[in-house]
Each structure stands twice: as C-alpha cells, then as structure tokens.
Amino acid sequence: MTSDAVTSERATPDIHPLLRDRRSSRIFDPGHVVTETDLVRLLEAARWAPSAGNSQPWAYLVARRGEPAHDRMVSRLSRGTAAWAPQAGALVLTLHRAGHDEDPSMAYSDYAAYDLGQAVAYLTVQAQSLGLHVHQFAGFDHVAMAAEFAVPPAWSVTTGLAVGRRPALTDDAEAGLLARDRVPRERKPLADFVFTDGYGDPRWP
Amino acid sequence: MTSDAVTSERATPDIHPLLRDRRSSRIFDPGHVVTETDLVRLLEAARWAPSAGNSQPWAYLVARRGEPAHDRMVSRLSRGTAAWAPQAGALVLTLHRAGHDEDPSMAYSDYAAYDLGQAVAYLTVQAQSLGLHVHQFAGFDHVAMAAEFAVPPAWSVTTGLAVGRRPALTDDAEAGLLARDRVPRERKPLADFVFTDGYGDPRWP
Question: N or C: which end of chain B has fewer CB within 10 A?
C-alpha cells in the first residue's frame, strides 16, 4: 500500500455524524466528572448490542476517578498508558468469556471477542452522542489486572476504555498538545479490504 | 439468573435511538435492492471504526442478490441460514486477520476479532441510519467458504451479514411471521455483568 493510497479523514464520506466525528483522544479534562447516569447509559448501550445466539459474552469493571477501584486499575497500567488514561473521568475494563466455567480451557465461542468488540463499539457511539470521548487501550498487565479484580479463569480481561471529556484549553502549550492529538485519522482505502469475486479482488478498485 | 432478572426491550432505557431501535430481522423484502451507494456507506462506516494500533485487521466479501458471488455464498450456507438470508438485498462475509502472511500459524493480534466486531457494529449503526436491517449469522461452512473465495490462510472468515429491508406486509401470514420476528429482545441485567470492586460484585445491584 503506497502512502497516497491511505485516505485521511479530510476525505471522510457521507456516514452518520456519530461515526464520522468520533476519534480517540488522549487528552482528558482531569476535573471532568462522568456522571453515574451517563455511565449507566454507556453500559446500557453495550448491553443492547447483538451477540452470537444472544450469548452476551461480556462483562465490565467500571470505576470513576477517585474511587478505590480506579486507583487499583491505575496501579496496573503500563507506564505509557498511565501517562494519560487516569485523567479521564472513568476507566472501564472490558472482559469477554473465553472458556466455560466448568472447564476454562475449553473455548466458549468463536465469537466472544468479536461480540465484545461490538458491545464496546455501541458504548463508544453512545459516548459520542453524550459528548464524551472514549480512548481504548491495551497497555496494562493483563494477568495482574485479572488477579487484582478476582476475574475467574473462564473470563479474559481484554481492553481498557478511558472515558471523559476534552479540556477547555487555555494556554498555548495545551493548544499545541491538542493540535497533535488532532492529526487527521487515516485508514486503508476500501479497495484494500472490500472484495466480491475473491479475496484481493476489489469491489471498488 | 432467574427469568424475571432478564429485562425485555419494553424496559430499554435512554440510549441513542440508532442503538435502541436496532434489531436483527430474519425477514427481508426479496425485491428490495440495496443500492451500491448504500453499500459504500456501510463499508465506509466499518472502515472508520477504531482498532488496536489502527491495525484495521478486517476485510469483507460483498455481494448483492443476483450477482454471481451471491450465488456462490448462498451455496455454502447451512440449511437454516439458507432459509432466510438469501432474501436480503446483500450478503457480506466478514474476515479478520488471524495470522501473519509469512506464518499464518503465528497469531497476528489479540484484538483482531474484537476489532472486526467493532467495525461490524459501526456498519450496523450506519445501516440503521439508512433504514436498513442487518442480521448476522455464522451458519455456513467456514472452510468451504474460505476456499470458495480464495481467502489466504492468515485470514479467518468470521461471520456473515444479511443486509436488507423489511417487506411491506400485505397478508395475514406475513403479519404473523413478522409478529414472531418482533418478539421483545432480552438481555441480562446490568447487575450480572457490570462490576467495580471485583468480578461478580455489581456496581448497580
């Protein structure tokens, strides 16, 4: 793929504004409080996502900044993630069911991680509609995090979500930070991954 | 979980209408045409989903009813899925990158299936905004489907999506079919899967 084949968001086409305008910010207002009502709405959105056979193979650990569980989550973040995620109003750890309760080594479903991804996507769309930002991360010690929160062996801690609001920027340093955060998003062109007659044969060359 | 702990959609709370009103219909208008423009919009929505490190570990095989590729997809569906999915205006097979091109047995990412799920969720939200329905399915011969479309070993055919529109129902038989299709959706209560201090300890008991 040549670099000019990558399309930046300047060319983002006609898709729903909630999808078009979402982006993953690393800059959060450290004073912003995510209300409990908004947290419920976010988790309700995730709850109503579709899943294979309506198996709902997901779970979440939720903590707002200042809660003891939040401190415990932060203590297990990688240094890179710990530099920005704790400023968000809430952290959410996402889990999918990887095995059976009776025999965690026996795979539960080929679709559990996929279904968790769907549910998280619904949560991010809901967040966007509430004026909140979500930045997903995987930079944490997965084994230690599972132990910290007594996650059973049949369940897999998958990603973390930082949920919050952008700060109102007041000085030049912050403005520079925000500008770097707003570098245009890039994606592969449709011709790279949408096929019809066979893999690699673009529907829209 | 007792049956009265399961909440039906009558109690669906205050979430965005695109998420609240989505449902998986098995009833499609066999005369409805999904326009090529709408197909592009659906795939663009999937394209702009977030993914781990912006890896975009997804691909799609897309065919509208009447296209040769559609017949080839239908020929690999299970009997149960073949009873309803072909009536939809389009079928989409979703793929995630499971391994590396050089060594397909080496796992590509812990998040590829999860990321594909996110992208499909964006597609379903976009569909909802266009007045289209998406019903996901896994009832097909995954090995034969991969061979049929020359899918490389590093890629995994994951789910299928039937995309279309509900028919305008004109007789009682169709109305009965639709009524059965509209049975209230059910989900586990939040107390079953949203925790804070530890797995199994509900945030909202």
Answer: C
| Global model pTM greater than 0.90 | yes
Q: Does B183 touch chain A (CB under 8 A)?
A: no
pLDDT, tens digit, for every residue of B49-106? Answer: 999 999 999 999 999 999 999 999 999 999 999 999 999 999 999 999 999 999 999 9
Question: Residue A41 is encoded by which pair of tokens?
Answer: 């709405």
| Cβ of residue A106 closer than 8 Å to a chain B Cβ | no
Contact B114 A111 (CB under 8 A): no
Q: Hey, is the C-beta of B140 within 8 angstroms of any chain A C-beta?
A: no
A residues 56-95 lying closer than 8 A (beta carbon) to B: 56, 58-63, 67-69, 95
**Structure confidence by residue, pLDDT tens digits, B113-148:** 999 999 999 999 999 999 999 999 999 999 999 999
Q: pLDDT category, A4, cuts 50, 70, 90?
A: very low
Residue B131 touches partner A, C-beta closer than 8 Å: no
* DSSP H/E element including A172: helix A172-181
Sequence length of chain B is: 205
Domains within chain B, CATH numbers bracketed: 15-168 (3.40.109.10), 170-205 (no CATH)
Q: Do A94 and A120 meet the contact criterion of CB atoms below 8 Å apart?
A: yes
Which of the residues B7, B192, B194, B201 would you substitute to probe the A interface, choosing the one with the greatest number of A C-beta atoms within 10 Å?
B194
